[in-house]
Amino acid sequence: ELSQRFEDAVKGLRGQAAISETNVDGALRDVRRALLEADVSLPVVKEFIEEVRRKAVGAEVVRGVSPDQQFIQLVHAQLVETMGGANAPLARAAEGPTVILMAGLQGAGKTTATAKLGLHLKEQGRRPLLVAADIYRPAAIDQLQTLGRQIGVEVFSLGSETSPEAIAAAGVARGREEGFDTVLVDTAGRLQIDTAMMEEMVRIREASHPDEVLLVVDSMIGQEAADLTRAFHEQVGITGAVLTKLDGDSRGGAALSIRKVSGAPIKFIGTGEKVEALQPFHPERMASRILGMGDVLTLVEKATKEVELADVEKMQRKLQEASFDFSDFVQQMRLIKRMGSLGGLMKLIPGMNKIDDGMLRQGESQLKRIEAMIGSMTEAERRQPELLAAQPSRRRRIAAGSGHTPADVDKVLQDFQKMRGFMQQMTRGGMPGMPGMPGM
Ligand code: GDP
Ligand code: MG
């Protein structure tokens, strides 16, 4: 399972205070594998990994997020950015009908996508005209006409005796004369990239002056999407793409390849054979799909939000009111664990971002001892640390119960009281010096 693999991949980062060259390498190896399994083409994967490495190394761990969570978010964000950030809308001609040329291999889903786009535009109150410029397969014209009837959109055809470029030009002229606002030209594809197909596409382009040349790509072709896109982009020039058959098993890695190779945005995705099965392309959804980890990201977001809003605010209020006791301390420990590190928690506290790793590690092992001591306290002792200060017998009992000396317990008690005073001072504004957290 890919999402499992991802969780494993980032385990190496868990508990680190910052992302470094060494701890990022293992995780990046697994990102690389995940992308290849999602069928992103190899050169695209390599370039992407280097970009993530540059951004990840040295990145400070943000407020309330552990390094592993942050790494996942960083990879995800980089994928989103690479795929264009937001959805790119269709171009509109300044005057006259907007002309959209559909290009791609045979079977990619061009004719279907032409009808799907026609329906999409019609539903937005536009007036599209479909043009049948695939003259090679007798069924192609019929197919478009059937789809056109189904969606209630007019289809322009001159049969199969006229050249595709002449049909395209005549279709655009008809669109202009009759006040259609969009002309969608369906063209013929071949089973593989060849010169004849490219030359024909160029002739159709020159005859119809399109505002958009949309490359229709079957997401199932995976790695090959890169070469296909390069050929069309270099020889015809594309302005966007439609990625089809995403209702299948494909992880959608082709989306990344298409964008990287051409710079052109994916504008729509096809998610089924029906004419309604078309959706605007959303980079963030595709990024989650490519990584195979939509659920993981949702969890990360949720956990982060929970920690920040509920626990931290409550804790800060308590610190301010000096009502912070050992029960709060236990809760704070849980918070630290949920956030992956003490460093993550410290960064939530204003002014406490200059603590080095050695101190953090030492602090964390000390915190474990203190947790054991708190485990031996009664509820009343947790709520009222003063009880311990007043009665040595209580301190001796806790020492015995937690496997420490009475002196250890005394020290923790002193530190705790110092910390309370310090926190109070600090949350009221000042940053007087180093924190007196117990054990630090
Ligand atoms: P063209 O040769 O590029 O015009 O491809 P077609 O539009 O004729 O589509 C080829 C086949 O793919 C047809 O059987 C379509 O029903 C199917 N198809 C197109 N788009 C999708 C899609 O998004 N999902 C699925 N499952 N099938 C699709
Ligand atoms: Mg077709």
UniProtKB/TrEMBL annotation:
InterPro entries for this protein: AAA+_ATPase, P-loop_NTPase, Signal_recog_part_SRP54_M_sf, Signal_recog_particl_SRP54_hlx, Signal_recog_particle_SRP54_M, SRP, SRP54, SRP54_GTPase_dom
Catalyzed reaction equations: GTP + H2O = GDP + phosphate + H(+)
Keywords linked to the UniProt accession: Cytoplasm, GTP-binding, Hydrolase, Nucleotide-binding, Ribonucleoprotein, RNA-binding, Signal recognition particle
Annotated EC: 3.6.5.4
Presence of keyword DNA-binding: no
SMART domains: AAA, SRP54, SRP54_N
SRP54-type proteins GTP-binding domain sequence ranges: 265-278
Gene3D superfamilies in the record: P-loop containing nucleotide triphosphate hydrolases, Signal recognition particle SRP54, nucleotide-binding domain, Signal recognition particle, SRP54 subunit, M-domain
Signal peptide: none
Protein purpose: Involved in targeting and insertion of nascent membrane proteins into the cytoplasmic membrane. Binds to the hydrophobic signal sequence of the ribosome-nascent chain (RNC) as it emerges from the ribosomes. The SRP-RNC complex is then targeted to the cytoplasmic membrane where it interacts with the SRP receptor FtsY.
Domains (record comment): Composed of three domains: the N-terminal N domain, which is responsible for interactions with the ribosome, the central G domain, which binds GTP, and the C-terminal M domain, which binds the RNA and the signal sequence of the RNC.
Sequence similarity: Belongs to the GTP-binding SRP family. SRP54 subfamily.
Subunit structure: Part of the signal recognition particle protein translocation system, which is composed of SRP and FtsY.
Record protein name field: Signal recognition particle protein
Phylogenetic classification of the source organism: Bacteria, Bacillati, Cyanobacteriota, Cyanophyceae, Synechococcales
Gene name per UniProt: ffh
